Amino acid sequence: MLETMGKNARLAFRQMALAPATQRNAALEQIAALILQEEGSILSANEEDMRHAMQSGLSDSMLDRLMLNHSRLSAMASDLIGIAGLADPLEEIYDAYVLPNGLKVHKRRVPLGVLAAIYEARPNVTIDIAGLVIKTGNVVILRGGSETIHSNRAFITVIQKALESCGLPQAAVQFIDDRSRERVNELLKLHEYVDLLIPRGSAALHKFCRENSQIPVITGGIGICHLYVEESANLDASLEVIRNAKVQRPTVCNALDTVLVQAPIATEFIPRIISKLTPDGVTFRLEPQAMQVLADQSLPGVSPAGPQDFDTEWLSLVLGIKVVSGLDEAIQHIEAHSTSHSDGILTENAQQAQDFLNRVDSSVVYLNASTRFTDGGQLGLGAEVAVSTQRVHARGPMGPKELTSYKWVVQGEYQVRQ
Predict the structure, then answer these.
(1) CATH number of residue 20's parent domain
(2) What is the pTM of this model?
(3) pLDDT above 70 (res 296)
(4) Distance in angstroms (rounded) separating the CA atoms of residues 340 and 365
(5) Lowest mean pLDDT among 47-56, 64-73, 116-125, 264-273
(6) Distance CA 66, CA 62 (A)
């Protein structure tokens, strides 16, 4: 089954790589239109997934990722239109120069090739990845989680209908419509046809793919995210940033997990954090020095941090708080516990800000902003296929340019090498 999909994907890639930008953009616009036209059938399919998920005891954070509604479908359609409006990365020529022998040299962006994506409980990822793949002239084989099977079937029907209507191969976006784990193992060995594997989901999924794939793997998307509040920070503004980073959507990888508070402001600021976020339903895990700051105050939802709490991606309304002496200790904590996803500093001290931005080696580092901006759409990429935390050709949100490689183009006048 999968070998046939791989062969079809490779054939489709030859056509997609040569398709003009106007044709690829038309397909994106058609998918957007069909999502809105087929909203009823898509939401009906999603309701079936939600029913099964609740019966199987899926966590609240996973249910939130799984759920679709009118607002989310409209946002998907809007994002696709936005992607269509982006400059075509395949038209970019760069690093051009002329050698002393007269050879004209430049690099030209080209698609990566056949991608495979494995992901869990997020049917919107089907649209995000398909949109960026079509935009960049790539093709993809998708394997969503079993909990999203009905939603993904509905989306794939829409995507392939749009591709066909625009004269592009349906095999540009294929879907493994099989819940068996054996299909995953089979996909990981499809190196003859697949050029890059992108897992999106739990740490266990990423680990499994790294250890078992015969295809190069882009991993990331596991976010233990930190904000360090330095003593010069505007504390009123910092509270709003912390609240946004934790509460705005707590079930995603760029949500805040730990606040590090510099000791001189801890007595004032930690109670303010708790007071600000408790009405939102946030509970708190405090290390010993932070607990001491509260002295005799008995605050609801506050408990001592356990041994693994600062190594946990909460994906829920839980926030860790730790007191640090200064920048060095804050960075030491981040180095020990961060997943290199998104980490930031809140400060009015320019030197402290620069030191933090220079020394913290996460995929995205922040100065006086919420970690929730680690998102392809928010950073102007239109969407993302993943957030890479590796030191490969792409780090952070992977948008159109991150789905390209390049080839050298050398133009001469019949020169020969001496």
Answers:
(1) 3.40.605.10
(2) 0.84
(3) no
(4) 9
(5) 116-125
(6) 6
Strands 104-111 and 93-98: antiparallel
- Is 383 inside a domain boundary? no
Q: Is 80 exceeded by the pLDDT of residue 61?
A: no
Number of domains, the chain = 2
pLDDT above 90 (res 377): no
Asked if 352 and 330 touch (Cβ cutoff 8 Å), the reply is: no
Query: φ, ψ for residue 276 (rounded to 5)?
Result: -70, -40
Cα dihedral sign for 297, 303, 308, 312? negative
Q: What is the mean pLDDT of the chain?
A: 93
Residues 6+ apart with CB under 8 A from 358: none
**Torsion region of 324: left, alpha or beta (phi above 0 gives left; psi -120 to 50 gives alpha):** beta
Angle (deg, nearest 10), helices 149-165 and 124-135: 30
Q: What is the DSSP letter of 220?
A: B
Checking if the pLDDT of 139 tops 80, the result is yes
The number of helices, as runs of H, and strands, as runs of E, in the chain is: 14, 16
> Same structural domain for residues 154 and 243?
no
Q: Are residues 53 and 200 in the same domain?
A: yes
Name the phi and psi angles at 361, rounded to 5: -105, 55
Percent of the chain with pLDDT over 90: 78
Alpha carbons 178 and 7: distance in angstroms, whole number: 18
Tokens of residue 186, six digits: 């089979």
